[in-house]
């Protein structure tokens, strides 16, 4: 060969032509590969094309594509072509392991020429592990993807610098295609996951709808059962006192509208206690059930008979005057006298009936029931069978007038006092609230129960002045506790009557008192009864909505004894309900009461309301309420109502004991 680079012999020329053909083949292969993979999004197709072309370009026995995992701590052999690839593809290795890790750390290719750059010890190590391997990195648009590796030159020998340059050029051409296909694969996987999640969500929604539907049906059934139990006597199935009062009120309204009268009768069995004492309570229950059957058989469809409790029954007779009521009373007495065979004995029963009529004797349900009750006791005292109410012979009227005068005097002279009964949180045993309870230490008669003077306050219209005094005194005491740094819970419960709830001036009165004592409205929990809600639901909602503006909270008191509608209950801004003490005190011995307590707790929690149980008088009752997941409890087992100073002493010494009692459940 003459001048450098100029072929001089035919052999040189042939060799040069061969190199040119090889270069053309390589260029054609690179172009073909680039065209093939540039528009391909299926990752497996891209892998197959890349590995096959790479094997042809560098004449390797095996070509592998290791890619970096998403955790950037491992790499996985995603594809391969040639010998033994089935044993390698799919394997994952730590990133610091092998040649792939070296390429990742140094961001440069590996081939045998690299060995000359290494120290002897490191060169010896890599010469054994990777002397016959070539690998170039794959770089995406923004980050390192992995690499293309060739193992063992076909026909023997080592990979050359030319192989390295070709594979590097090849990797640069296909890296974007691999990145795009991998990204598309991720999109497909994400779409499949999303579709799977969607199917799972749809299945869960269907299941949830079924559960909600089932739960709604269960709650509706429980509510129906709860209403039935709350409004009917469990022994006889007759309406109880609450439902009798509601129906009497309804009947009076219709009688007033139609210009007609009605009669109410009260029946008390004679010598019933003797039957219980002699034959046992089971026999007494059978007598009561038989009386219910006999009374129902004598009445018209429009009449109502109910059991008020014990051996007392009430009968509502719409449209009946005194003459009609007397005729029915005579029939009832005759029906009672029919012998009743019970445990081998023929019993002849008798009863005493009291009769009162609308509008002759009274125009509201409370007075009518009271006067019928007075007449019944007159019939019992005179053994006359039945008696029609006579105001002249009702000594209660004179007593009532005197009592009203004493109440007025008591308000004027500040004879009334406020006591406070603690309520505890059952999960922690901590005192979270106190209920304000009015007491009247009469200077002559001693302590008079609120059950006696509150109804009289309501009947005489004095309840408005009394409520003003209660709120003023209670808020003043709260402000005093706050100033002294005394903690008695977060709120203070105050009872409101039906008359308060229809008093449009109450919200303004309360706002004035809150300003007077510089306290926030959220320190008050105003307690309202079921019956007061249902007396005039629309007006109650309006009043409570205005009161809510002051920040106060609301509780439904004596829940279970009235006939509250779930529709109204959901519309009212109440945060809790209080289970009546009669159910709590009897739930250990009476399955119906226990069911009412449980159903009430579930109902309240499903409505997002807290539950307070009144009348907790034993540790057993407290334990049961904790087990039923009731929220708050109060009763004599925790503490009796206390004067303000005694309450502070109690709180200082009682927290540890109450926590122990609560945890014992």
Automatic annotation (TrEMBL):
Ranges that cross the membrane: none
Family annotation (SUPFAM superfamilies): EAL domain-like, GAF domain-like, Nucleotide cyclase
CDD domains with a match to the protein in the record: EAL, GGDEF
Gene Ontology BP term (one): cellular response to nitric oxide
EAL domain location: 400-655
UniProt entry keywords in alphabetical sequence: Coiled coil
Coiled coil: 180-225
Taxonomic superkingdom: Bacteria
Domain GGDEF intervals: 260-391
InterPro entries the UniProt entry points to: Biofilm_reg_signaling (IPR052155), EAL_dom (IPR001633), EAL_sf (IPR035919), GAF (IPR003018), GAF-like_dom_sf (IPR029016), GGDEF_dom (IPR000160), Nucleotide_cyclase (IPR029787), Rev_trsase/Diguanyl_cyclase (IPR043128)
Reactions mediated catalytically: 3',3'-c-di-GMP + H2O = 5'-phosphoguanylyl(3'->5')guanosine + H(+)
PROSITE patterns: EAL (PS50883), GGDEF (PS50887)
GO MF annotation terms: cyclic-guanylate-specific phosphodiesterase activity
NCBIfam families linked: GGDEF
Protein name (record): Diguanylate cyclase
Naturally occurring in which organism (per UniProt): Candidatus Muproteobacteria bacterium RBG_19FT_COMBO_61_10
